[in-house]
Task: inverse folding
């Protein structure tokens, strides 16, 4: 998170890592709400026995705007507001954190900075291989695209599991697989989002 925040010229106030303990978490979240305009929390936002974050946020007066989104990776994402402060609860897996940051947090930060173009740059590309998903959610694949004679061609950047960050090192885009469609054939046109640091 610190690295992707640096891309938008933000130096975060790091609150540290907290154990799955209600009192410790509540103390840290209170501090974050007091000292920041945007609070980012990674982990503890799903439905496990020790996922206390949402419960604490609601108890501290954060108004929930949404919890859970129909994307993969990143389903258990939380967004809420307390006054003029924004609160994002991001999943704990590294790839999920990165995708939800790019899709939700980064646009919010850029908008607060007064920027107009806040979304990732999108373009169409031709698939160089067959892609398939096994979910009824939209799926963001890590991808690599290159231009040949003014036309973009794209393929997967490697393994896609939400705990595998290494394939992001070779990626320069996200490939967007729509919710309604599970199989994309080689040669099809598909939407990609250009990663901002590439």
Result:
């Amino acid at each position: 998170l610190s690295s992707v925040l640096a891309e938008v010229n933000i130096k975060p106030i790091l609150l540290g890592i907290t154990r799955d303990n209600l009192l410790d978490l509540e103390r840290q979240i209170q501090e974050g709400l007091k000292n920041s305009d945007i609070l980012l929390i990674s982990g503890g936002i799903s439905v496990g026995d020790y996922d206390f974050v949402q419960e604490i946020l609601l108890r501290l007066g954060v108004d929930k705007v949404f919890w859970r989104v129909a994307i993969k990776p990143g389903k258990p994402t939380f967004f809420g507001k307390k006054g003029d402060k924004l609160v994002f609860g991001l999943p704990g897996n590294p790839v999920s954190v990165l995708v939800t940051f790019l899709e939700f947090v980064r646009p919010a930060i850029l908008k607060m900075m007064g920027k107009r173009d806040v979304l990732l740059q999108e373009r169409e590309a031709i698939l160089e291989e067959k892609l398939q998903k096994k979910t009824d959610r939209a799926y963001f694949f890590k991808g690599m695209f290159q231009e040949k004679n003014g036309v973009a061609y794209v393929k997967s950047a490697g393994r896609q599991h939400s705990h595998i960050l290494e394939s992001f090192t070779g990626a320069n885009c996200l490939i967007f697989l729509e919710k309604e469609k599970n199989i994309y054939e080689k040669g099809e046109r598909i939407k990609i989002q250009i990663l901002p640091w590439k």
Q: What stands out?
A: The helical segments are 2-7, 22-35, 53-59, 94-112. The longest helix spans residues 94-112.
